[in-house]
Amino acid sequence: MAVTSHDVAKLAGVSQATVSRALRDDHRVSEATRKKVADAARALGYVRSEVGRSLSTRSTHQVAMVADLDNALYPRLVAPVHDALMDLGYRMVVFAERGDEMSAYERLLDGSVDGAILTTSELHSSLPHMLHGKGFPFVQMNRVSALIDADSVTADNSGGGAAVGRLLHECGHRRIGAILGPEQASSSRDREAGFRGALDEAGLELPPRRVSRGRFAYEDGSAGFRRIMTQADPPTAVFCVTDMLAVGALNEARQMGLEVPGDVDIVGFDDLDVAGWPCFQLTTVRVDFPLMARFAAQRIVARLSGDRSAEAVHETVPTRLVLRETHAVNS
């Protein structure tokens, strides 16, 4: 016969309601009682049923993270989001978004999760708008849709892009190029805007022939770098709006026999683990993804806990330059 909460209550000498509250770390239960209940549950081999809890509370205590599994940024986000939600008493489940917003919409509304953290939004994305129409709680993280003003947590992408522009100007560069992401990605748009703004302030141009635009993949960085470096008067410095684009550019530079730095400087954005590998030592812009994840988890849990105010909340995570070995002063 399966062990029940009644058995735990009897062994611990408390009520069944106290067992339920103690096992979900309710602050109304003293630490001594929580320990007594936990010891009894452990001795009996009792495991709390999340299904039963869901039926009684009409809450799954699960939050979906909608992610693009092909994006190199995904592994950097999933662990801190998982841990932040776990600390707040929620489980995280991953929904892979393959460009089919209607499929994601249907899965989010099937009752298996209470809310969502969206990491795949593009400026034209309708998913946030559709979820808002259904009153389904969600937070956009890293990228946002332009179709609705909803809770979001993003990096200071414009400020980070501007910092790169100033760095390259201070290093003496006058011919500068850029490898950009999709125009529909708010992160790429804002990094580009900040970068262009800093160059404008310095009286520097970013002509179309020194710009390549594609997706965020390694291959786009490689192909984009070769394209702009084979133009007349190629740039002496290239800003890549993600580290994976920069890694593609670095490897392509080596294929072309170019020294980095020396012949050309390359700067990335995100500070993924690969940026600090000895074979790359990429100068980049650091985004505090654990902080971003914590803000996103706190915001979605606040919504799930009763904060239904109409006003959207926007959190911006600071960015900072990380100077390594792919740039040189006075080039």
From TrEMBL:
Keywords: DNA-binding, Transcription, Transcription regulation. SUPFAM superfamilies: lambda repressor-like DNA-binding domains, Periplasmic binding protein-like I. One of its GO terms (molecular function) is DNA-binding transcription factor activity. InterPro entries: HTH_LacI, LacI/GalR-like_sensor, Lambda_DNA-bd_dom_sf, Peripla_BP_I. The keyword Cell wall biogenesis/degradation does not apply. Residues 3-57 form the HTH lacI-type domain. It comes from the Bacteria. It holds the Pfam family LacI. This is LacI family transcriptional regulator.
